[in-house]
Design a protein that fits this description.
mainly alpha, Growth Hormone, Chain: A, 17 helices, globular
Length: 465
């Protein structure tokens, strides 16, 4: 199948939103390899050091629904520019942090700003490109940018840390500033609204945002202090209460922040679930292997980061092509992609400690790279391919929230398995890898169900939802 070309102003707009998405994605992982240098200079204990990474995910994952809805109501371009401006300022401020609290605060602010820019950027893409192959191609490029940013973050962070660890915090500021200067001349202006100002669901925002904040905090804290810690179960209990209150509010609100009817769209809901699972499992695998390479094999941070280059290259080259195919075969590509990812996890489990680590890396990274390149755009096409402009910010926020929260939850469970395995007589890294492989099998099964029933209904002559 041929892929349509993207040229002119539309291509320039795509370049800008992809630049912002790359910054959001790379910031998640680039700081990870700088942890030893940060600890040495700032004298942070391990408990505080972990939050230099987690604070970004905490802000990103918790504010995504709010960011997506704000973009739909107050304007996609306006929200994008304001969010990117805050991101640039927080990035520049990162070069002047002098303590653990200021470092964590800078990372938290960057995560919150990303929660507004990411759904707004994707909504702008959907506005620029109408439905059809051009949109699929654009989504594929956008997907590959996000995935490459995340996967390559450790490589770029490792190189930056050779100069100074502060470079991992500051390096996004110039790109964000340049994007801010150009964006008003390229991105489509927000449509002027006629009639009364849209009603904003403040009560919904005040329940779901702290609810997600506490949920992400709880699962992150579990990885550090355990599931029995007061901070863990207390946060999760409070999150459950707030999220339940949010559902009740949305069911009764005349203009809800998140219309619950969106979850009746089977294809969208299925895509959100697969997104959270597949991304979470990959994050868990990356966590286990990163520790194994450095703690067991004694590899450097930069060498460890280079392990994931093949995945990044695969996504960059293949995701746009798979995105066009996903326009009509999204479920099939999700199943095949998840299966290839699982094959990579299984190869790792079976070969760890039995064959040469470089050979094992090569054997596992090939299916991982192709599988990730296949699954990521397929999930985005399934979730956003037929979303209207008025709800594109919300749908984008839900998708990104699935990625972030899925990653946090699976990572917490994976870390718990690593910590508890020795007491049960298991080797920690074998147990952690096996846990990830089993979740990969489960993700493949989940990807294979759901829309199948809808397809069978449509083939029988009845309209599919």
């Amino acid at each position: 199948m041929s892929t349509p070309k993207i040229r002119g102003m539309a291509g320039f707009a795509l370049l800008l939103v992809c630049a912002a998405q790359f910054l959001d994605s790379i910031d998640v992982s680039s700081i990870a390899v700088a942890m030893p240098a940060i600890q040495a200079e700032l004298g942070l204990p391990a408990t505080s050091l972990q939050w230099a990474v987690s604070a970004y995910v905490l802000g990103f994952g918790s504010f995504l629904l709010l960011g997506g809805r704000v973009a739909d109501i107050f304007g996609h371009r306006r929200t994008f520019l304001w969010g990117l401006g805050v991101f640039a300022i927080a990035s520049a401020a990162g070069g002047f942090v002098d303590s653990g609290p200021t470092l964590i605060a800078a990372r938290l602010v960057k995560g919150i700003s990303a929660a507004f820019t990411a759904p707004a950027a994707l909504a702008l893409l959907l506005t620029v490109f109408g439905e059809g192959p051009a949109r699929a191609r654009a989504l594929g490029i956008f997907s590959s940018t996000a995935a490459v940013g995340y996967v390559m973050g450790m490589v770029v962070g490792g190189v930056a840390t050779l100069v100074t660890w502060r470079a991992t915090l500051v390096m996004g500021a110039p790109v964000a500033a340049l994007t801010l200067i150009i964006a008003p001349f390229v991105l489509p202006a927000d449509k002027k609204r006629n009639g009364p100002r849209p009603v904003f669901d403040w009560l919904g925002a005040m329940t779901i945002t702290p609810g997600l904040l506490l949920f992400v905090f709880g699962v992150t804290n579990a990885a550090e202090e355990g599931w029995n810690a007061t901070g863990t179960w207390g946060s999760l209990l409070a999150a459950a209460v707030l999220i339940a209150a949010f559902v009740l509010i949305e069911a009764r609100h005349s203009v809800p922040m998140v219309p619950l009817s969106i979850f009746r769209r089977t294809k969208l809901t299925h895509a959100y679930i697969v997104a959270g699972l597949f991304q979470g499992v990959y994050v868990g695998f990356q966590f286990v292997t990163t520790l194994y390479y450095q703690n067991v094999l004694g590899w450097s941070a930069l060498s460890t980061g280079l392990v994931f280059v093949f995945v990044g290259i695969s996504v960059m080259l293949l995701a746009p092509r798979f995105a066009v195919m996903a326009q009509t075969r999204s479920t099939l590509l999700m199943v095949l992609g998840s299966g290839l990812l699982t094959l990579g996890y299984v190869i790792w489990v079976l070969g760890m400690g039995r064959i040469d680590p470089i050979l094992l890396t090569a054997l596992s990274q090939v299916p991982l790279g192709i599988g990730y390149a296949m699954t990521y755009p397929a999930v985005q096409i399934a979730a956003l391919g037929d979303v209207g402009e008025s709800e594109s910010g919300l749908a984008s926020g839900l998708l990104f929230a699935s990625f972030q929260i899925g990653g946090g939850v699976v990572l917490a469970f994976t870390a718990s398995v690593l910590a508890s395995a020795p007491a049960a007589g298991w080797e920690a890294y074998v147990a952690g890898s096996a846990f990830v492989a089993l979740l990969g099998i489960g993700t493949t099964i989940v990807a294979a169900i759901g829309p199948r029933a809808r397809l069978q209904t449509a083939q029988a002559g009845q309209p599919a939802e």
